[in-house]
Structures are given as C-alpha cells and as structure tokens.
C-alpha cells in the first residue's frame, strides 16, 4: 500500500513562465506509486502497459516516486518525484510531490493526450492535476483494497479522511476501470456510485511456451525436484493479510505428504514466517527465496509447482494467480474471496475455507489424486490466462474512444 502524504485537495502549484515551451509529440501518461525496482502485481501491469503502448508506436511517460535504483528505460520517458522510504515496507516509498516543484513543471510541459492512474495516492493526485491542466481524460484502475491498508497504518480519523479523498479522486475520473467484475463490490462499499468498466489484466507468461507439459517437466528437472514430490508455491508480498501464516500452519498439519514449499517475495512478515516454520518443525521442507527479479526464473518456479496456495481475502484480482494459471498450475483460493470470482472448483482451481485445517485437507486430498490437479491446471490456463498482447489491443481501443469522446465534448 502506498499511503503517500498528499497535498491538500484545494492546493495547487503555481503556474509559471516555465510552461511556455512544449514538446511536439503527444504522450500517454501512466501514473503509479511504485515502479521497478519495486515489484508487485500493479507494477507489472504498468510495466506491460509501457511495453505494449510503445510497441504500438505511442509515446509513454511514467510518473512515479523516486527510487535509489532504476532499471534503464530507453523506450519511454520517466518522471520521478521526491520520496522517502516507508518504514517496515521496504522497498516501497512515500511520494511527496507537494515538496517537489520540478514535477509540477514537468507535468505542465508534457503534452499528455490521456493520463491513466493506477493508484489514488500521490501519483494519482499528480494524474488528476495533469488532467485538469491539459483538459484531457483521466482514467484510473482500482487495483487494491486500500481501506485495509489504511486501517493497518493509520488511526481511525485519518482513515476516514483518506477514504474521503480517495472517493473524491475516483468521482473526478473520466472512467474508472476494474480488473474483474467482483471488484465492483469493494468500490461500492467505499461509497463510489459512478460507472465502472471491467478491463482485464494480462500476464506475460501466457505466450512463448508451446508445450506446457514438457516445460513443466523440464522446469522440475532444472530445479532438482523429484517427480514424486508435491511442489507448493506462494508468490507475493509476505504480509499477514495475504494469509501466509495460514499456509505455514497448514503445512505443519500435513501427514504422509512428500512436499516442498516455495515462498517467493518479501514483506514485513517474512522473518516471522521463517521463525514460525522453524518452530513448527517444517523448515526442511520450506524455502524462502526472497524476491526473484528474473522473469524466466520465476516462470520456472510457477511451472514446476503443482499447486499455488493463495489464502487471501485482501487481493482483488491477483496477477500471480493468472501467472500460475498460464503455467497450468491451479490455485487453492478461499471460498467467497474476490480473487475466486472466476474460479470453478476442480475445473480451473480449487476452493476451500480460509483455515489451516481446510488448506491441509485440500492439499492432502489432491496429493492423493494428482489427476485432479492436472485437469484443473489445464482448465486454469484455458480460462484464467490472457496475454498482454490481447489485453492491450482492447486498452488502446478504449483509450482512443475516450479521447475522441472527450474532444467531441469540448467542441
């Protein structure tokens, strides 16, 4: 969660004489409170928007908080603004655009044609400013359950204040997108009453492998995994909200199952989960890898896994579940979770109660009949995995329609 210190809603930077020179080429603006080297599902979404927009011949500008290290980005422009590290949430950072006069000048000079905010906090406020200044459409995607994050970080009065500002932000948008239909319920709970548009997310593992069964076999061999071993996987932030303690305690209840559990990611609960696995006597079967930045290495772990464990009510439309599906690795999700909206039990994944006992029972049953895993894995790839190439064709068409409507309305 990126709870940046936001400027007051009525505060605006002064317009200055620096606004006179304007570059010639119009730009698509992508705004988010994190970008590599920070990696999460929203960051990967923005990265792929950059990749496919530039591949389609569009000029892209990413606006995000400053980070100490930044991978090269020769194909698009990037504006980073003042930030500070977030305590206990490394490598995330707070953005402080109010105290960075240069970012406002840059936004005024950049001839955006449309801006798309993937976060409602500091980067979202900058996107809203650019939209007003240039009189262009503001699109925003609602990715996360922000109230949960705010309630963990702030006292109740501050939560109410920030939630009001969040609602004002979405009400001001030209269009509000959600990654799947069930996410609308959360937005309505927050008080949003406007229209929402479902725009799917893709994943970059959906293409490139022609024989998935062979790739899964080779991945297990490469990682030194015996054919008989049941491989379990979690990828994501190691935070309690995602249910990682449920996974650890479920593993401790497994009896007679030859398994190997891989945790990939970082988060505030990582060290606690390491200690818990040692306390429960399962550390020999559990590996905490930390972040795996190389996408091909990560894909091999997805492919080598038999089951993806994700007992989270926190996530809306987790990209990691779709990445696993692309490698024919079905997920076990909690019944009633937003993430499970498109899940049909035993067809493209598995549903169970969000308790260690229920997860242990599900894992044990599937270990005894792996044909169920194979069937669900193939169903997951067929129904849950969609390529970014396909998704971005839809996004670009939507951008074009929004721009045309906006320009028609101005005239």
Q: Strand order of the main beta sheet, please?
A: 3-2-1-6-7-8-9
Q: Extract low-pLDDT stretches.
A: 1-12, 14-24
How many angstroms does the end-to-end distance come to?
A: 40 Å
What proportion of the residues form beta strands (DSSP E)?
A: 15-25%
The averaged pLDDT comes out at 92
In total, the number of strands is 15
Spatial shape? globular
What does the largest sheet look like? 7 strands, parallel
Helix content: 40-55%
Report the structural category. alpha/beta
Oligomer: single chain
Q: Specify Rg, calculated over alpha carbons.
A: 22 Å
- Note the run of SSEs as H and E: EHEEEEHEHEHHEHEHEHEHEHEHEEHHH
Number of helices: 14
What this model shows, in words?
With 411 residues, the chain is α/β, with parallel strands linked by helices. Helices cover 41% and strands 16% of the residues. It has 14 helices and 15 strands. Helix 8 links the parallel strand 10 and strand 11. Helix 4 packs antiparallel against helix 5 and helix 11 packs across helix 13. The radius of gyration is 22 Å and the shape is globular. The two termini are 40 Å apart. The N terminus is likely disordered.
Which helices and strands appear, and what pairs or packs with what?
Layout: E1 27-31, H1 41-55, E2 60-65, E3 77-81, E4 83-85, E5 93-95, H2 101-109, E6 112-117, H3 122-134, E7 138-141, H4 146-153, H5 156-172, E8 175-178, H6 183-189, E9 196-198, H7 212-222, E10 230-235, H8 244-252, E11 259-264, H9 270-279, E12 286-288, H10 295-304, E13 307-309, H11 319-326, E14 331-334, E15 350-352, H12 356-368, H13 370-384, H14 388-410
Parallel strand pairs: 1-2, 1-6, 2-3, 6-7, 7-8, 8-9, 10-11, 10-13, 11-12, 13-14, 14-15
Antiparallel strand pairs: 4-5
Helix pairs in contact: 1-14, 4-5, 7-10, 8-12, 11-13
